[in-house]
Write a structure and sequence with these properties.
globular
Length: about 400
């Protein structure tokens, strides 16, 4: 139990440290540059965030599971994972090349520079070797160091240059520094030999194909609103919306770490399983409510008083988006329960339905109500995915009914 607690603590600290520095720099960047530049990079980030599914980071927990259960096959596992990552990146290069056809030379350069972050993120799977070896502190220290170095680099460049090309490297700095440090650290602290095993590559793909599909769907769901605003709105709308999303996103992030403490308790083979499910959902409701209110108030005050003149609509957008925090908590907690119940296909289905609903409503309501229509679409689709789908879908409804009510 000691190591479980330590791994959770180090993971959470490393992640929040990186996100905090990234958020601080984003707001400083937004204060220093034009709204047009903020809108441009936010739009490109939305495109590349969806394409980041090609980094196959969703498979990293699966790679870690294999390393734990089959330590004697370590070289085959790492080599097979590396092969699969290479194949995925080749597909990514084809897709990004097709997108570049529809851009001018300057846009193509910016997208290519920013797109290299996906390449570096793909190879961060080597960090799994630290957790498998119980070197959680090593993992945290390297992560904190990488995020800090990237943060200092971005500050230095922002104060010494005003070219968009160098600004584009801001979105690569974190993944590059973390990739270099993780690989360097793994080389000196653990055995990182590779055997390029095609059979394990195919095994990993078969095991994780639904995770890959779900990753694409979830990333698209999280960014479709920004794509719609950037495509059908103007740069002022996009810049204000990006500021609001960044603020609310900081509070949404907590939802993914919130239920980590229940990872050991949600065991179907124990008598306390149903009790743990009920406790998790009760705490999810309380935590989601508190964080939603906190996120709405803090985001609105911060955006209005710090950026009110330059981004006058950002605080209003943040208030409208704040219910997303509450539903994100439920989406995360119910998703964990669905996985424990072996209902990964149900979880994938609900993500597809939520994405479809979000896309259709966003395109339709954007044309009628502008950005506020997109906000309504985002909140409604997440409410559907996190709560309503579990009532409508028969398999999900029966599962949760059995867990929540005594028969």
């Amino acid at each position: 139990m000691k190591w479980v607690s330590l791994s959770t603590l180090t993971y959470s600290f490393e992640r929040y440290w990186g996100v905090s520095l990234s958020s601080i720099f984003f707001f400083y960047f937004a204060a220093k540059v034009s709204t047009e530049s903020v809108a441009l990079f936010a739009y490109y980030q939305a495109i590349l965030a969806i394409l980041s599914a090609f980094a196959l980071q969703c498979l990293d927990p699966l790679i870690q599971r294999e390393l734990v259960s089959r330590p004697e096959d370590r070289a085959d596992i790492l080599g097979g994972a590396l092969l699969l990552k290479f194949v995925s990146l080749v597909v990514f290069l084809v897709v990004i090349s097709l997108i570049l056809i529809f851009t001018n030379a300057e846009q193509a350069v910016l997208l290519l520079i920013m797109g290299t972050a996906i390449v570096f993120s793909s190879f961060k799977f080597i960090s799994s070797t630290f957790n498998v070896a119980g070197k959680h502190v090593h993992y945290m220290v390297l992560g904190v160091l990488g995020s800090t170095v990237a943060f200092l680099y971005k500050l230095l460049v922002l104060h010494s240059s005003d070219t968009l090309t160098l600004y584009a490297t801001f979105f690569v700095a974190d993944s590059f520094s973390l990739c270099v440090l993780y690989w360097g650290g793994a080389k000196f602290t653990s055995n990182t030999g590779f055997t390029y095993n095609k059979n394990f590559m195919l095994h990993l793909f078969r095991e994780g194909r639904f995770l890959i599909l779900s990753s694409f769907v979830l990333l698209a769901s999280a960014r479709i609103d920004q794509l719609v605003v950037g495509t059908y709105g103007n740069s002022v709308m996009m810049a204000n919306y990006a500021m609001a999303v960044k603020c609310i996103g900081f509070f949404v992030l907590a939802s993914s770490a919130f239920n980590l403490g229940y990872a050991q308790k949600l065991n179907k083979n124990t008598e306390q399983y149903r009790q743990s499910v009920r406790a998790l959902l009760s705490e999810t409701f309380v935590a989601g409510t508190i964080m939603t209110l906190l996120g709405a108030v803090v985001s609105a005050i911060f955006l209005n008083y710090v950026f009110g003149d330059k981004y006058p609509n950002a605080y209003q957008y943040a208030l409208g988006l704040s219910p997303i925090i509450f539903f994100s908590y439920f989406l995360s907690s119910t998703g964990r329960i669905l996985v424990v119940e072996g209902l990964t296909k149900v979880a994938f289905k609900r993500n597809v339905y939520a994405l479809t609903l979000n896309a259709l409503l966003s395109f339709w309501l954007m044309k009628i109500f502008g950005v506020y229509g997109v906000i309504v679409a985002s909140v409604l689709s997440l409410a559907f995915g996190s709560v309503l789908f579990l009532v409508i879908d028969r398999e999900a409804r029966c599962t949760f009914k059995g867990l929540l009510y005594d028969t």
